[in-house]
Design brief:
Elements (H helix, E strand, L loop, with lengths): L1 H25 L2 H6 L17 H6 L12 H19 L9 H12 L11 E2 L3 H18 L1 H4 L14 E5 H5 L6 H10 L3 H14 L1 H4 L5 E3 L6 E6 L4 E8 L4 E7 L5 E14 L2 E7 L2 E5 L4 E4 L3 E5 L7 E12 L4 E7 L12 E8 L11 E9 L3 E4 L2 E5 L8 E2 L13 H7 L3 H26 L7
Helix pairs in contact: 1-13, 9-10, 12-13
Length: 454
């Protein structure tokens, strides 16, 4: 038995070393491939109208033509066609309306220092961007067509170099960062609309606390847990409750059990042109002692410029907060839904409205309040500021004294990665994955391969 374990451990170490070597081999390839190949200036610049041959003749190297990769040629073609289309419909240099000018001034006056000009949160470390692009290159090579056709990256074993020494559970614990400000107001509110405003503001604001994680968090293993205590007395309990698809469940209780929040979340990843989309499924349910529950889903996350340009994270799509007891909901659409000029994609608009919980697909019957803002800056209801990134401070959190052995902080791969011992971290990660696969086979042998019981 000891000989078998030794052989298995040695095999994992060899695999870890091979993975490290493969990663290092492609580490510079993405930067060489197209970072400088596509134009990075204003997309409406006249230089984009030059043909490749003319551009080659002007590159200052004795008339040698600039050799573009196929990716560069496709990108340049898209830039050129977009510029021509925008010009033809009068979008270039068109004057902004007073409403657009006012919105632009509000958005750029209140903005996270990490915000991207085009929208969302920009990556801050060029070295981190280089690592991310190297990882994507390695993923494309290893998964090939399956990845590009929508294969779920969350079911893929990543090399440890592309990960940060935190699990998805640890990243998720930051979602409670502003509850100490908004949940007491929501608890005390007697007006359901006012309560809705505070819940919406709380969770729009906390999006900035979980954004900016461009290096992939470690996937929690089945049964992994996380406990967290917060400075206001709130407590969080999380557990990885499903392996494939990966599902994280949580229970959050406010100080003195004044409110609770529970739910789950799972991810899937798809790809677009120079983009990566992360779709979160699941619901969060904020429960109050008077029996009302505000239930809400997740917007879609988009990583832009994953191959070239300024890498950034955006939130797009629609998010809905529903209070079925009081028959009101708040619908928010991200990504500058009305296409207002001069605004970044983090601008959002929406409203609180009355609706029929028995027929949620039907249009609302009465608008009760309008909301707009930027998820990297502020939330305004009827032009009254509810959340401002410049004035809200997140509350502190810490680990309780008594932790379960299954807590994320005890993971051997995360501990080694934090110490920058890459080879040990990769070997530990492979060991954990091997244990997961073996345990899954045991569950399938008892309950069947497609049973929900395992």
């Amino acid at each position: 038995s000891r000989a078998i374990l030794a052989i298995s451990s040695r095999a994992n170490q060899d695999e870890a070393a091979a993975t490290c070597e493969a990663f290092n081999k492609v580490n510079d390839e993405m930067a060489k491939m197209a970072l400088d190949d596509l134009p990075q200036d204003n997309m409406f610049d006249d230089a984009f109208d030059e043909d490749d041959d003319e551009a080659g003749a002007k590159n200052g190297k004795g008339g040698d033509k600039k050799q573009r990769s196929w990716l560069g040629k496709v990108g340049k073609g898209l830039y050129r066609r977009t510029a021509n289309l925008a010009s033809s419909v009068g979008l270039v240099d068109a004057p902004m309306s007073k409403e657009e000018e006012d919105a632009k001034n509000r958005v750029f006056a209140c903005r996270s220092p990490y915000a991207s000009v085009i929208g969302g949160v920009a990556i801050q470390d060029p070295a981190e961007a280089k690592v991310c692009r190297s990882v994507i290159s390695l993923m494309v090579r290893s998964m090939g067509k399956s990845l590009l056709k929508g294969g779920n990256v969350m079911n893929t074993s990543f090399p440890i170099q592309c990960c940060q020494p935190k699990t998805i559970l640890e990243i998720g614990s930051a979602m409670a960062g502003y509850t100490h400000i908004y949940m007491p107001r929501a608890v005390q509110a007697t007006d359901p609309v006012e309560r809705m405003k505070n819940v919406v503001s709380c969770f729009i604001g906390t999006m900035t606390l979980t954004s900016g994680n461009f290096l992939k968090p470690l996937n929690p293993i089945l049964g992994e847990t996380l406990q967290m205590d917060y400075s206001d007395g709130a407590k969080l309990y999380m557990e990885q409750t499903c392996h494939h698809p990966p599902v994280s469940s949580f229970y959050f209780t406010g100080p003195d059990n004044s409110y609770t929040c529970h739910g789950s979340q799972t991810f899937s990843v798809t790809w677009g042109y120079n983009k990566m989309f992360i779709t979160s499924k699941g619901r969060r349910n904020m429960c109050f002692k008077d029996g009302s529950v505000i239930s809400f889903d997740y917007p879609e996350d988009r990583w832009g410029n994953v191959f070239w340009g300024e890498m950034h994270h955006e939130c797009v799509g629609t998010q809905t907060f529903e209070d079925a007891k009081n028959k009101i909901r708040c619908r928010i659409t991200f990504g500058n839904p009305e296409g207002k000029r001069g605004l970044p994609t983090d601008f959002f608009e929406g409203c609180i409205e009355r609706y029929d919980p028995a027929n949620p697909e039907k249009e609302g019957t009465q608008v009760l309040s309008n909301v707009d803002g930027s998820w990297v800056g502020f939330v305004d209801f009827d032009k009254v500021r509810y959340w401002d990134v410049r004035t809200c401070e997140k509350m502190s959190m810490c680990k309780p004294r008594n932790l379960l052995p299954s807590d994320s902080c005890f993971r051997s791969d995360s501990i080694a990665l934090a110490k920058k011992d890459i080879q040990a971290a990769q070997a530990a990660k492979l060991d954990l994955e091997q244990v997961q696969r073996a345990e899954r086979k045991l569950r399938e042998a008892v309950h069947g391969k497609n049973s929900l019981d395992h």
